[in-house]
Amino acid sequence: MADEKATSPGPSTQSVHAGEPRVQPLNSLTTPISQTSTYSFADTQELRDHFERRIERDEYGRYGNPTQRVAEKKLAALDTAEDGLLFSSGMAAITTTLFAMLSRGTHVVVTDDAYRRTRQFLNQTLGRYGVEASTVPAGDYQRIEEAVRPNTRVIFSESPTNPYNRIVDLEKLVEIAQRRRVKTVIDSTFATPVNQRPIEFGIDLVIHSATKYLGGHNDLLAGAVVGSAPLIAGIRDLQGVTGAVPDPFAAYLLIRGLKTLALRVARQNENAERLAAFLDAHPKVGTVHYPSLKSHPEYEIAARQMSGFGGVVSFEVEGDIDAVSRLVDACEIPRIAPSLGGVESLIEQPALMSFYELTTAERLEVGIKDNLVRYSVGVEDGADLVTDLEQALKKV
Ligand SMILES: *Cc1c(COP(=O)(O)O)cnc(C)c1O
Predict the structure, then answer these.
(1) 284 C-alpha vs ligand 1 centroid, how far in Å?
(2) Closest C-alpha residue for ligand 1 atom 7
(3) Catalytic status, residue 62
(4) Ligand 1: which residue has its CA nearest to atom 11?
(5) What is the pTM of this model?
(6) How far is CA 257 from the centre of its chain?
(7) Ligand 1 in reach of 280 Cβ (< 6 A)
(8) Distance, CA 283 to ligand 1 centroid (Å)?
(9) CA-CA distance, 396 to 393, in Å (whole number)?
(10) Atom of ligand 1 nearest to the CA of 94
(11) What domains are there in the chain, each with its CATH number?
(12) Phi, psi dihedral angles at 373 (to 5 degrees)
């Protein structure tokens, strides 16, 4: 393993070159967009050769596209996985992957702090198809193990989690899962392959909302799953049936965005650490949820299994929901929007964004406090972000 690492290219080289043939059609330097829905056959013999797998070629857009495949190879290389599969959104990657792994009468264990729609899919949608889910606190490995039943097929977790940046000990999770013969799936969106490669810890499948850091420019929707070739093949077959395929143009934008992934993430790590340190020392700010801080409950794990702490800083402001809105409204650099991971800084109050229709009590039940702010740092100058936040905190 160590030898392999020493000779394999670094994340910047991988971001730029991995997955792309050195010689492209028409000598194009960049990967072309194959803007076609279907592929023609020269004659019936070619059709027969295709279906009997004597030749490798494309058939119909729902089963794959050359631009999509280049993006998949790049993502697999970045995450040190055998294969990868691209989807039309992160949620499409999550739902198709879980539908491929679960069936009526099976059970899934999920950790508690997670993307809102993931929670909804696991706890509500899957139940309608006879799949049960148990939610356990992230970080409580005894509870995770106790939740595993004979019919459990998957342990699903984010790490870092959205929005609290909880870190799951991947080694511990894999140890439990392998002993109990259960597959592990990690939503690694917040980390990106630059900061964390769960496959190297023995995680079976890694999911990304490519809409976030991987695309990186707030201009596309996509999702990805990477892992072993046999697992990905099974999910690919189901994608051909359920149909949540990426558009060739989105695949192209993703490849273009990925070129600067390592550069962007390095700056975002740096900006977020700086913002977290500033907020941690500010009298109007309570708990800052960022794993570079020694006060973070999983600082040690993050430092061990990640090479950067990520670009999202969540923090609690000393004030009520309106005081927090005054801070959000007074910021002049970050824009108010859902999403994260792009070059533009974004700020939001989860209580008034993803969880708007819930009451304060219902929000608290799922762990979302009214005074919580989620700040996704972009690639602006860190000093400017701090100065801006400093003036905005005066309005609280
Ligand atoms: C955004 C996000 C998703 C969903 O991805 P979409 O591309 O919006 O479908 C899933 N997990 C995490 C952690 C996310 O941040």
Answers:
(1) 30
(2) 90
(3) yes
(4) 115
(5) 0.96
(6) 15
(7) no
(8) 32
(9) 5
(10) 10
(11) 2-258 (3.40.640.10), 262-393 (3.90.1150.10)
(12) -120, 135
User: Is-catalytic flag, 115?
Assistant: yes
Residues near 135 by beta carbon (within 8 Å), at least 6 away in sequence: 110, 111, 112, 119, 122, 123
Q: Is the CB of 226 under 6 A from ligand 1?
A: no
Best probe residue, ligand 1, of 94, 156, 162, 225 (max atoms within 8 Å of C-beta): 162
Per-residue pLDDT 10s for the chain (396 aa) are 444 555 789 999 999 999 999 999 999 999 999 999 999 999 999 999 999 999 999 999 999 999 999 999 999 999 999 999 999 999 999 999 999 999 999 999 999 988 989 989 999 999 999 999 999 998 899 999 999 999 999 999 999 999 999 999 999 999 999 999 999 999 999 999 999 999 999 999 999 999 999 999 999 999 999 999 999 999 999 999 999 999 999 999 999 999 999 999 999 999 999 999 999 999 999 999 999 999 999 999 999 999 999 999 999 999 999 999 999 999 999 999 999 999 999 999 999 998 888 998 889 888 899 999 999 999 999 999 999 999 999 999
User: Does residue 161 line the site of ligand 1, with CB under 6 A?
Assistant: no
Q: Quick one: tokens of 206?
A: 């890694």
212 catalytic per annotation? yes
- Cα 114 to Cα 111, 173, 190: the distances in Å are 7, 16, 11
How far, in Å, from the CA of 189 to the mean position of ligand 1? 7
Instruction: Indicate if ligand 1 lies below 6 Å from the C-beta of 162.
Output: yes
Residues 283, 286: Cα–Cα separation, whole Å: 8
The CB of 246 under 6 Å from ligand 1? The reply is: no
